[in-house]
Design brief:
Number of helices: 15
Structural class: alpha+beta
Binding site for FAD: 16-19, 186, 333
Radius of gyration: 24 Å
Keywords: FAD, Flavoprotein, Nucleotide-binding
Binding site for L-tryptophan: 342, 346
CATH class of the largest domain: Alpha Beta
Active site: 80
CATH topology of the largest domain: FAD/NAD(P)-binding domain
Largest sheet: 7 strands, mixed
Protein name: Tryptophan halogenase
CATH architecture of the largest domain: 3-Layer(bba) Sandwich
Helix content: 25-40%
Oligomer: single chain
Distance between the termini: 62 Å
């Protein structure tokens, strides 16, 4: 009979905010046998600007058994069908990255069929066949699962949320399931002879011990960085932006069902519409623009009266060399950061906890589990990094030093290979369990003017006597179906309106 190490029985989470309370809620709900204590201080602010999500976030809500409509009301959320990108390829140009499918039931790969038609002179755009894109363009919304048998059933959606309300919602959820919250500032960390973290020492002299620690202390990386000394791989030579200015404004009209990412002279600005306010921000490179200029440009473009003062957020793009080290797991900003262009921050928190449960340790903390966890999470960060770089490196803009530098950068080999393959005939090198699937790569490639030289040769064996006519009928059918949907604002008002604050 083997002597199996004891199972994990106690976890301490350092830091609250979205990351800390997602971690606490997931552990409390999925592993109630583990005692969870979360240490945070009201005196230490949180970033609180990660307010745009992607569809996997809804999996988290469902996994916790939370009512989606209740969550939407409590967090003053609105629905998100994708992202509109303005002025990225060139000034005056825009494109849309939708959630969900593109195309209609037809023999063969839809993108390849559309590409074949486009090479033959067909004029309709790829996004004319994406339900989410057409819904967003018309400002209309319906839950796709309620319209499965219609042309809009292939759409998917995510949420725009108030990050601080999300943290409060999940705190209530976690505390109701036994999570203990300790108010306090961590001033020191004691380690064991083997280098593992033993206990936290708080400002008032109290100590907090646990078998395992989750570092949600944000950019401070109190445990993974400061205490354990785990290094950080910097990606700022690829992603030049290193600061953001965030501000909230009153809504002007009904909230549109999409995020806006509007390219600027030295970066881009976001607009995230919630039910009762709008989140705005300007992400930029401090080498190319000052805080004062970035703030002025943002305030010149936002709509509505200011609800908050502009807040600067410095950051450094990259990833921890080891996201899990010994008895410390880093989640959220402490593990790495990629600018919020594709709204991946909350997803990486959820993903980090999902993988932790997949490689759940016992008190032996097997290095093999840590190594595989780190490999998989690092691959996720690298995939997202490459996808974000794609938006910059394919630009035709040369009107500012920032955009000229983006267009001339030497690409990561993984992205360079993906672009080269796609340019042949639209083939994508798919990985395992990737976040961004073919529709995302095809949409951004097409939006940024990356068009394959030809289509896949297998399509030449398929009969296509009236491919343009068939495509037209599909696009027209989708447009008619979208025209019958309620406006996004009315859908919220009738189904999940938040109380007026």
């Amino acid at each position: 009979m083997t002597n199996r190490p004891a199972p994990l029985r106690s976890i301490c989470i350092v830091g609250g905010g979205t990351a800390g309370w997602i971690a606490a809620a997931m552990i409390a709900h999925l592993h109630p046998e583990i005692a969870v204590e979360l240490v945070e201080s009201d005196d230490i602010g949180t970033i609180g600007v990660g307010e745009s999500t992607i569809p996997p976030f809804l999996q988290l809500i469902a996994k916790l058994g939370v009512s989606e409509s209740e969550f939407v009301r409590e967090c003053q959320a609105s629905f998100k069908l994708g992202i509109e990108f303005r002025d990225w390829l060139r000034l005056g140009h825009s494109y849309f990255h939708p959630f969900g499918a593109i195309g209609m039931p037809i023999e063969g790969d839809f993108y390849q069929l559309w590409l074949r038609a486009a090479h033959g002179g067909y004029r309709r755009q790829l996004q004319d066949f994406a339900p989410a894109s057409v819904m967003a363009r018309e400002g209309r919304f319906v839950l796709p699962h309620a319209a499965r048998r219609t042309p809009v059933g292939g759409a998917a959606y995510a949420l725009h949320v108030d990050a601080k309300r999300v943290a409060r919602f999940l705190r209530r959820f976690a505390e109701a399931r036994g999570v203990r919250r300790t108010e306090g500032i961590v001033t020191d960390v004691a380690t064991r002879p083997d280098g593992a973290v033993d206990r936290l020492i708080l400002k008032d002299g109290r100590t907090v011990s646990a078998e395992f620690f989750i570092d949600c202390s944000g950019f401070r990386a109190l445990l993974i960085g400061k205490t354990l000394g785990v290094g950080y791989t910097d990606w700022s030579h690829w992603l030049l932006c290193d600061r953001a200015i965030a501000v909230q404004t009153e809504n002007v009209g009904p909230p549109p069902p999409y995020t806006l990412a509007h390219a600027q002279a030295a970066g881009w600005r976001w607009r995230i519409p919630l039910q009762h306010r709008t989140g705005n921000g300007h992400v930029f490179s401090s080498r190319h623009m000052s805080d004062d200029e970035a703030t002025a440009r943002l305030l010149d473009q936002v709509e509505g009266e200011l609800v908050t003062d502009p807040m600067p957020v410095p950051f450094r793009t990259g990833v921890r060399d080891r996201i899990w080290n010994g008895n410390v797991l880093s989640i959220g900003l402490s593990s790495g950061f990629i600018e919020p262009l594709e709204s991946t921050a909350i997803h990486l928190i959820y993903r980090g906890m999902e993988f932790f449960f997949r490689f759940m340790p016992d008190l032996a903390f097997a290095p093999e589990l840590q190594a595989e966890y780190n490999r998989r999470m690092t691959a996720d960060y690298e995939e997202i990094r490459d996808f974000i770089i794609l938006h910059y490196c394919t630009t035709e803009r040369d009107d500012t030093p920032f955009w000229r530098e983006c267009a001339a950068m030497e690409l990561p080999p993984t992205l360079a290979a993906k672009l080269a393959l796609f340019r042949v005939n639209g083939t994508l090198a798919d990985g395992v369990d990737e976040l961004f699937r073919a529709v995302s790569w095809q949409s951004v490639m097409d939006g940024m003017g990356v068009r394959p030289r030809t289509h896949h040769p297998t399509l030449d064996r398929l009969p296509a006597p009236d491919l343009p006519g068939e495509l037209d009928r599909a696009a027209d059918s989708l447009a008619r179906a979208v025209g019958q949907l309620p406006p996004h604002g009315r859908f919220i008002a009738e189904n999940c309106a938040a109380p007026i604050p």
